Amino acid sequence: MEVVYIMQKVKLRIHRFLVLGVLAIFALIALFSCIKKVSGALNEQIQETLKDVAEQNKKIVEKDIKLKLNFLQGYSKDLTNSYKDNTEVVEHLKSYVDYFEFKRMGYIDSEGQVLTTDGKIANFKDESYFKDAMNGKTTITGVIGDVIGHSESINVLTVPVYSKEGYIEGALFAAYRTVKFSQMLNVSSFEGAGSSLLVTKDGEIFAEIGINAMGNKMDMFDYIASITSDEDLVEKVREELKEGDITEIVLKGEENTHMYFAPMDIKLGDKKCYVVTLLPENVLQDRVGNVWKHLENFLIIIVVILVVATVFTIVSYVRQSRKVIELAYSDKVTGGNNYAYFLHNMNAKKDRSGFIVAMDIDEFRIINNICGVKTGDDLLKRIWKVLKRNLKLLESHARVNADRYIMFMSEDDKEVLKERFAKITKEILNEEDLLGIPKVMPYFGVYAIDNNVSIESAYGYANQAKHIVKGNHKKNFCFYEDGDYRDRIELKKLEDGFEGAIKDRRFEVWYQPKYDAKNPHVVSAEALVRWRANDGSLIPPGKFIPLFEKNGMIATLDEYVFDEVCRRQKKWLDEGRRILPVSVNISRASLYYENVAKRYRQIVDSYGISVEYLQLEITESATIENEDIHKLVDEFHKEGFTLLLDDFGNGYSSLATLNELHFDVLKLDKSLIDYIGDKKGETLLVHIVGLARNLGLLITAEGVETKVQLDFLREIECNDIQGYYFSKPLPVNEYEAMLA
Ligand code: C2E
Ligand code: CA
Ligand code: CA
User: Per residue in 418-458, pLDDT tens?
Assistant: First the structure.
């Protein structure tokens, strides 16, 4: 049961382990998609920022240019409305130069003659911006060299000036240092890692921040080519820039660079312009990298947890499996192998020629009942060790159950095997000595096996052989082939029929009267059991009592008989009949049960009759310690019972114990009575009876069959006579009739 339970638990663990694994996979998938999403989102965000920066720069630049152009236009209108001469105008313009961060401003008359705020005089009549202004256009030029001073890169803003009459009479101009555009650009959102450019559709760079293309005299295509080796891409950019449909690209190179193009509304000269923002990917990666690092830590933690959980699961799985095997194959009581292991081990053996030995301890119950289960278990453990140290390599053994052991012995010589049994027996008895418990004998049944017989049936045969000798005091082993098994079948039938017979009340109590020796009349009786078989025949107690004493059923039967006798006494009392004390036999095996005296007294009380109508016959025995009998006798006395020492003189009893045991009546066994007629035997009887009387015991003689015996017993003052001479055991109705 336990094994099955643990197996289920292990299965559950495996399921749990699988679930854990699936969960782990899901967790990892979720984590990866999360990382992907995060890095994708970050990428998108970077691109978005790139675009924002470009648009912002575009707005700043355009706003600035528009502001400047608006100013110039407004100022030119003022000129139309209020007349001022050229010198006066230039003088007035000076105050705006610094404010708008121009290099200079000036007035160009219709001839192209120029007067500037920094006092320069020149003629611009060939300059395209002058021509455009005279055609009514407001313009800002591309990057040009300053014709007045040092050919510094400048952009010129020009607006026409109208007369009151409405025709163009000149132009206002402002020279703007191209470098100033660069100062407007801003890449702060990339912490300086990005760069921005202002380029024309021809790729000419006129403002930059973050790179030094202009210093290196590069145009944008040169610059791109310095980042990527992809010439096709450079060409593509050149095309798309011209067409005006470029927005963003990624330059693949040693490090990838993202570029965003924001087309400007204002043209410089005739040329469309772009604000371009660039960002090397490593900036982006640094940012993603940061996120990655957090995720990585997270991932490591998850992996560690998973690994720990997995290891834990595997370890506990292995442990559980080991426990299962332990449970399945080990014996709790001895700590050694169990029968299952023995079978497993034997079945795995290729060559198993040798003997299967079934061993058990006769009367092991005594140990459990008298000394307690703990001592019993201790003995079982010690026996296991005795067997262990007596077995050779490749031999094995196990406890099967209760006090039953199985051994495989690879001996081929039967005589050696017998010697080994003798040694084991000696060591087991020695262990019992050490424990200070009653001596109980091991018995061995032996079956020679070969590879054709299963271990289970071999054990069965060995057990049958063992039963042949069990209880035999001279020989404690039996080889299967030497055994006579005819009786065993008979005994098995009796054993199987016992419970049913109790239930169906097929055990009958017969009564054998006991007579007063001096003045013969019935004074009491002994209750003797018989088994009424299904076919109506009577089975004598000699057939089944020894068997039930061995298998422990006797306790039930004794109690049954005692109860039956009490019931009958009560019935006779209720019917107003005369009743006499009846002695009931109690087997030794029945005495081992806890509180037996109290139990018997309770039965008497349950019928509400006096305990003096019940007596108990107990046999003295060699195997039970006097001390224990002593205690039991006292206990029975305390409960008010009269005790008869049964079968005195049949071999087990000794004169010495008469003194020690406080019985009330001594029953002389039939074997002693049979001495009558023999002088020596008669002398012995005289002494026994004299001694018993001196010790205060009454004497009953059993098995008295003749007048000669009766006369002798009367002479030596025996008290009661029981035997065929007066009466055989009688069925209850005959005994009842006799009492009347
Ligand atoms: P036991 O207690 O010694 O009982 C006396 C036996 O001697 C009885 O045999 C009885 O029939 C027999 N007997 C009596 N007088 C004579 C005689 O003059 N000559 C001969 N040859 N035999 C005589 P039974 O009834 O067959 O009982 C045999 C044994 O079975 C009893 O011996 C007793 O040990 C046991 N027994 C009987 N009933 C019970 C019982 O209820 N419980 C227990 N534990 N044992 C019982
Ligand atoms: Ca008896
Ligand atoms: Ca007897």
Answer: 999 999 999 999 999 999 998 899 999 999 998 888 999 89
Tell me the three state secondary structure of residue 479. Answer: strand
Short-list 147, 154, 129, 131, CA closest to 139: 129
Question: What is the SS3 assignment for 99?
Answer: coil
Ligand 1 geometric centre to CA of 440 (Å)? 26
Q: Is the C-beta atom of 553 inside 6 A of ligand 1?
A: no
Q: What one-character-per-residue DSSP string does 246-259 give?
A: --EEEE-BSS-EEE
- Coil vs helix vs strand at 527: strand
Q: Are 611 and 572 in contact (CB under 8 A)?
A: no
Average pLDDT, the chain: 87
Closest ligand 1 atom number to CA of residue 617: 2
Contacting residues for 663 by C-beta, under 8 A, at least 6 apart = 618, 633, 643, 644, 645, 697
What is the pLDDT, as a whole number, of residue 621? 64
| Ligand 1 pocket member 587 (CB < 6 A) | yes
| CB of residue 440 inside a 6 A radius of ligand 1 | no
Q: Whose CA is nearest to atom 20 of ligand 1?
A: 703
Q: Which of 86, 125, 77 is nearest to 106 (CA)?
A: 86
- pLDDT range class, residue 42, cuts 50, 70, 90: low
Asked whether the beta carbons of 61 and 329 are under 8 A apart, the reply is: no
545 lines ligand 1 (CB under 6 A): yes
Asked if pLDDT for residue 265 goes beyond 80, the answer is yes
Q: Which amino acid, residue 423?
A: K
Residue 79 has pLDDT above 50, yes or no: yes
Q: How far apart are CA 263 and CA 39, in angstroms?
A: 29
pLDDT band with cut points at 50, 70 and 90 for residue 8:
low
Q: For ligand 1, is residue 445 a contact (CB within 6 Å)?
A: no
In short, whether 546's Cβ falls inside 6 Å of ligand 1 is no
What 8-state DSSP symbol labels residue 704? -
CA angle at 563 for the pair 562 and 564, rounded to the nearest 5°: 90
Confidence of residue 567 (pLDDT cuts 50, 70, 90): very high
Residues in the chain: 740
Q: Cβ contacts of residue 396 below 8 Å, gap of 6+?
A: 337, 342, 345, 346, 407, 408
Lowest-pLDDT choice from 30-44, 340-354, 554-568: 30-44
The reported pLDDT for the residue numbered 622 is 46
Closest C-alpha among 398, 395, 384, 439 to residue 417: 395
Per residue in 138-148, pLDDT tens? 888 888 888 88
| Cα 40 versus chain centre, distance | 43
User: Which residue's alpha carbon is at the smallest distance from atom 12 of ligand 1?
Assistant: 703
Closest CA to 569 of 524, 515, 533, 621: 524
Q: How far is the CA of 528 from the centre of ligand 1 (A)?
A: 6
Residue ranges of domains in the chain, CATH in brackets? 1-328 (3.30.450.20), 339-479 (3.30.70.270), 509-529+562-739 (3.20.20.450)
56-65, 208-217, 716-725 — most confident range: 716-725
Task: Please report, as a single letter, which amino acid is at residue 466.
Answer: K
Q: Which residues contact 166 (CB under 8 A, 6 or more apart)?
A: none
Mutate to test the pocket of ligand 1, among 506, 508, 528, 549 (most ligand atoms within 8 A of CB): 528
> Is residue 723 within 6 Å of ligand 1 at its C-beta?
yes
Task: Report whether residue 234 contacts ligand 1, using a CB cutoff of 6 Å.
Answer: no
Query: pLDDT band for position 1 (50/70/90)?
Result: very low
Query: Does pTM surpass 0.90?
Result: no
Question: Which ligand has the shortest distance to the CA of 514?
Answer: 1
Structure tokens at 152: 């510094």
